[in-house]
Specification:
13 helices, 14 strands, about 400 residues, alpha+beta
C-alpha cells in the first residue's frame, strides 16, 4: 500500500508547513520540484531529477500498472498549483512505485493462500535516500523493474499490445500480460542458474544447469479447488520407493468409501496413528521416486504410475502435488554427480523395494510458477488460466496501486 501522505494543515504559515513536511515526510531530504526557486535542496533532489522521476511515474503503465497509478495525476496537479505538499507527494509516489516494482504492492493479507511466493522485503525509502546521498538517483530508479530476460520480454510485449487497436482480444491479452508481470515481480531478483522450474499453467518442467536446459518433461498439477501453490524452495532430499501418507481429507472422502477390498488390493494399510498409508511399489500413487522441498503446503514432485494423464492437453488433475512424466530421469540428473548414486545404483535400490531417503549434496532450487504468457519461437503464447488467477491478480494490483488506492 502506498505510504500515507502527511496531512495538510488548514491554517499555517508557509514556514510552519515546510517545517512539518521536513519533520514528517522528508526526514533525510527535500525533494525540490520545478515549481521551486532553487535547483536543489540541501542534500536533496535536483530539479532535473525531479522531472525524470515524474517521467518514470508517467510511464509506469508500460510496466503493467494502471493508468494513473501512484497518484500521478494528483501529483501533477499539486505541482501545477505550486502546492507546498508536492515534494512530499513526489517522495511518496517514488517510494510506492519502487515497492510495487519489487512485488510489494499487494499486501500479504489480501492474497489467496495458494499464492505462496512472497516478494523479498525492500525498504524503498532507505534505498531512495542512499541513492540520493550517492548521487545515483536516476540509476536507482531505472533499476527498480526486474531485470530478468523473461520480465523484459513480457514487458516489451505488453507495450507493443498497448499500441495496438483496442479490441476485446487485445484487452484480454493485456490482462494476461499484466498478471504475469506482477507474478514475476514476486520472484527473487537473482535467478539461480541451476534450478528446476515448473510452470503450473503449461504443465511442464525444465531443469537448467548453469542456465542451459538439460531436461524437459510434461507434468500434471493440481485441479481447480486443489491448486498447486506458487512458491520457491530448494529440493534437498529424494525418496526412492516412497510410501504415500494419505491426507485425511482424501482418505475419508475418496478412498475409504471404496471399501476394504479396494484398499487392500491397492496396497493401503492403516498405521499406528490410524492414518491411511499406501505402501511403496510401482503401482503406488507416488510411483518410484519423490522429490522433497520445504514448504508450508506439504506439496512435492513425484513419479506416478498413471502415465496416461500426460497425453492430455489439460493436465490439472492432481490434489496439488506435481506429477512428473520422467521422474527417474530427473533423479538420475540430480544424483548424477553424487558419489555412489549412479543410475544403476538407483535402479538397484528401487528393485529392492525398500524406502530409501537420499540427501542431496548439492540441493537444487525449485520454482513452482504460474505463467499464462510465455515466449515461444519469437512470439508470446497465451496459456489457459486454469485457476482463474489472472483477473484476480490484476484486480488486487489496481486496488492497491491504481488511481483509487488509499493514500
Amino acid at each position: 500500500m502506498s505510504p500515507a501522505y502527511p496531512p495538510r494543515p488548514a491554517a499555517r504559515s508557509a514556514p510552519a508547513v515546510l517545517r512539518r513536511l521536513l519533520a514528517l515526510a522528508l526526514p533525510a531530504l527535500l525533494l525540490v520540484l520545478p515549481a521551486c526557486s532553487r535547483d536543489s535542496g540541501p542534500g536533496g533532489l535536483a530539479k532535473a531529477d525531479g522531472k525524470y522521476a515524474l517521467q518514470v511515474l508517467d510511464r509506469a503503465p508500460e510496466q503493467g500498472f494502471a493508468s494513473g497509478a501512484f497518484h500521478v495525476r494528483e501529483l501533477h496537479a499539486a505541482i501545477d498549483r505550486r502546492d507546498p505538499h508536492a515534494g512530499a507527494l513526489l517522495r511518496a509516489a517514488v517510494i510506492a512505485y519502487a515497492r510495487a516494482e519489487h512485488g510489494l504492492a499487494i499486501p500479504a493479507a489480501s492474497r489467496p493462500a495458494a499464492w505462496g511466493q512472497r516478494a523479498a522485503p525492500y525498504d524503498a525509502a532507505r534505498e531512495l535516500d542512499a541513492a540520493l546521498r550517492a548521487g545515483q538517483f536516476r540509476a536507482w530508479l531505472d533499476a527498480q523493474p526486474p531485470a530478468s530476460p523473461l520480465y523484459r520480454t513480457l514487458q516489451q510485449a505488453y507495450v507493443a499490445t498497448l499500441r495496438q487497436p483496442q479490441t476485446p482480444q487485445t484487452a484480454a491479452a493485456l490482462t494476461t500480460l499484466r498478471a504475469n508481470l506482477e507474478r514475476l515481480r514476486w520472484l527473487p531478483r537473482t535467478e539461480p542458474p541451476t534450478r528446476i522450474d515448473v510452470n503450473i499453467a503449461s504443465a511442464s518442467l525444465i531443469y537448467l544447469v548453469d542456465g542451459q536446459p538439460q531436461l524437459t518433461m510434461r507434468t500434471a498439477s493440481g485441479k481447480p479447488g486443489d491448486e498447486t501453490p506458487i512458491l520457491t524452495s530448494t529440493i534437498d532430499h529424494l525418496v526412492l520407493n516412497p510410501p504415500w501418507h494419505v491426507p485425511d481429507e482424501i482418505a475419508d472422502q475418496e478412498l475409504r468409501p471404496k471399501g476394504e477390498g479396494y484398499l487392500s488390493s491397492h496396497g493401503f494399510v492403516t498405521d499406528d496413528s490410524g492414518r491411511l498409508v499406501q505402501q511403496p511399489g510401482p503401482d503406488s500413487a507416488l510411483g518410484l521416486v519423490k522429490f522433497e522441498f520445504d514448504n508450508p503446503y506439504a506439496v512435492y514432485l513425484h513419479d506416478t504410475p498413471a502415465k496416461s494423464a500426460f497425453d492430455r492437453g489439460q493436465r490439472a488433475v492432481s490434489h496439488g502435488c506435481v506429477r512428473l512424466e520422467r521422474a527417474l530421469d530427473l533423479a538420475d540428473r540430480l544424483l548424477g554427480t553424487q558419489a555412489g548414486w549412479s543410475p544403476e545404483r538407483i535402479r538397484q535400490v528401487i528393485d529392492s523395494g525398500e524406502t530409501t531417503t537420499v540427501k542431496l549434496e548439492r540441493p537444487v532450487p525449485v520454482r513452482l510458477l504460474y505463467l499464462t504468457a510465455v515466449p515461444s519461437e519469437g512470439r508470446i503464447v497465451t496459456l489457459p488460466d486454469v485457476y482463474g488467477w489472472d483477473p484476480q491478480v490484476v484486480s488486487l494490483l489496481d486496488r492497491f496501486s491504481g488511481p483509487g488506492a488509499a493514500t
